[in-house]
Design goal:
8 helices; UDP N-Acetylglucosamine Acyltransferase, domain 1; Translation initiation factor eIF2B subunit gamma; Nucleotide-diphossugar_trans; 38 strands; initiation factor; guanyl-nucleotide exchange factor activity; 30% strand; 7-stranded parallel sheet; cytoplasm
Length: 454
């Protein structure tokens, strides 16, 4: 479809410490024993999008990611890996590689996205509406395990999160209003002029911006050039384009649009927006000529593609999401894992060794060359490659990465154990993260702790 594809893969994300490290940058974090970046690359490959620019923060991380891509996708994809400075944001990353962008339309995808929504559907909607931007919206994921095994009742329920307040037209195809991040915690203000123009707007708080966007290249580059303080596509570029779409000039001579006086706004109090929810705002002017009036010259269109509720869509952008996505990809979203599950609904590598009376439950994964002692119990967990696990070990709702050593009698619940960690005998962990190479001494008990080498 003549789209250039940019994958923003990130690097040493602060929200994922201590899971990430110099040796394991964010794009290579394992989801069901595969790098998270592989899910986006496979999705693009399956949609015949094979020419990609993968943007990685930091030279060292880019080298590691590039090396992995060249070995894993050598005959499947044509990938240019571009290193950009750390902490310049998604908008800064696009600025840094702007000289690579030559196509009329650009597809920008977050490298931490795990989903089964075809990018081609977003691209087609973008072309159909001749939009300047089309954003993929998905149902808000729920957070936390269905069964945690803990005594607290709260831990047993998945919790919906609120991500954005989004205003849509009556056809749910055009994006009229967006409030994100800290804005969502305050009263939401909607321009009356916007409501006059569109007649009616539906406010939604049950949708997630999946960080998959189709952009008209010329508009995106012009915004980034003129708005040099913009750092984020989601928080800066997208809201700017949405705010200015009914104005006479896209860029308003490089100046942000002037805010209207407070009395010219409709205030939607935050406490009137339970999550998830929808709410309609309307004026009595039902003769508004929008969205057909959107075709008039000197306006531009911001569109959305809303995925079906049956589709899986989540972003690995914090530690809770890391645990949730690992659980989902060996559970309800196992079709994304790329593995064939056994009749017991689990995946045990043929080279793995299990001791006497050891049980591996459904929705579990056991990696290559890992060894478990006698009388172990593994439930709803992912065990990586070449782990050494002693006898009488219980692991529930957890992720254990590669080359971990776990001593006899350990109990691990709701935790993440990184590469090369050593847990000595009888360690008890609940809701903890243990950073790479850390040693937990025998008999230790931790709850809700982050343990890592300084």
């Amino acid at each position: 479809m003549d789209f250039q594809v940019v994958v923003l893969a990130g690097g040493a994300s602060a929200s994922l410490v201590p899971l990430v490290s110099k040796e394991l940058p964010k794009p290579l974090l394992p989801v069901a024993n595969r790098p998270v970046l592989s899910y986006v690359l496979d999705l693009l490959d399956s949609n015949n999008l094979k020419d990609l620019i993968v943007v990685v923060e930091g030279e060292e991380a880019a080298l590691r990611v590039g090396s992995w891509i060249s070995s894993a996708y050598v005959d499947r994809l044509r990938v240019e890996v571009a290193a950009v400075p750390e902490d310049i944001g998604t908008a800064g990353a696009i600025r840094a590689i702007a000289h690579y962008l030559t196509a009329n339309d650009i597809l920008i995808v977050s490298g931490d996205l795990v989903c089964d929504v075809p990018p081609g559907a977003v691209a087609a909607a973008h072309r159909r509406h001749d939009a300047v931007v089309t954003s993929l919206l998905c149902s808000v994921p729920v957070s936390g395990p269905l069964e945690s095994g803990s005594s607290g009742g709260k831990d047993k329920a998945k919790k919906p999160r609120r991500y954005n307040i989004i205003g849509l037209d009556a056809t749910s195809q055009f994006l009229l209003f967006v409030a994100t991040g800290a804005e969502v915690e305050k009263d939401v203000r909607v321009q009356k002029s916007l409501l006059h123009a569109v007649g009616k707007m539906e406010i939604r708080s049950d949708l997630m911006d999946a960080h998959l966007y189709a952009f008209k290249r010329s508009v995106l580059i012009e915004v980034l050039d003129q708005m040099d303080t913009f750092q984020s596509i989601k928080l800066d570029v997208l809201p700017y384009l949405v705010r200015t779409q009914l104005r006479s000039q896209i860029l308003l001579n490089g100046s942000p649009p002037a805010e209207e006086n407070g009395h010219e706004k409709v205030i939607l109090p935050n406490n009137h927006l339970p999550c998830p929810s929808t709410k309609a705002l309307s004026f009595h002017d039902q003769n508004a000529s929008w969205p057909s009036g959107f075709a008039a010259p000197k306006t531009h269109k911001c569109c959305v593609y809303i995925a079906e509720k049956s589709k899986y869509c989540a972003r690995l952008n914090n530690i809770q999401a890391f645990s949730d996505i690992n659980r989902d990809v060996i559970g309800e979203a196992s079709h994304l894992s790329g593995y064939s599950f056994s009749t017991h609904n689990n995946v045990i590598h043929p080279s793995a060794e299990l001791g006497s009376k050891t049980t591996i439950g459904p929705q579990c994964m056991l990696g290559e060359g890992s060894q478990l002692g006698d009388k172990c119990s593994i439930k709803r967990s992912v065990i990586g490659r070449h782990c050494r696990i002693g006898s009488n070990v219980k692991i529930v709702n957890s992720v254990v990465m590669n080359h971990a050593t776990i001593g006899d009698g350990c109990s691990i619940q709701g935790s993440v154990i990184c590469n090369n960690v050593q847990l000595q005998e009888r360690v008890v962990l609940k809701d903890c993260e243990v950073g790479a190479g850390y040693v937990v001494t025998a008999g230790s008990e931790y709850k809700g702790e982050s343990l890592a080498r300084r």
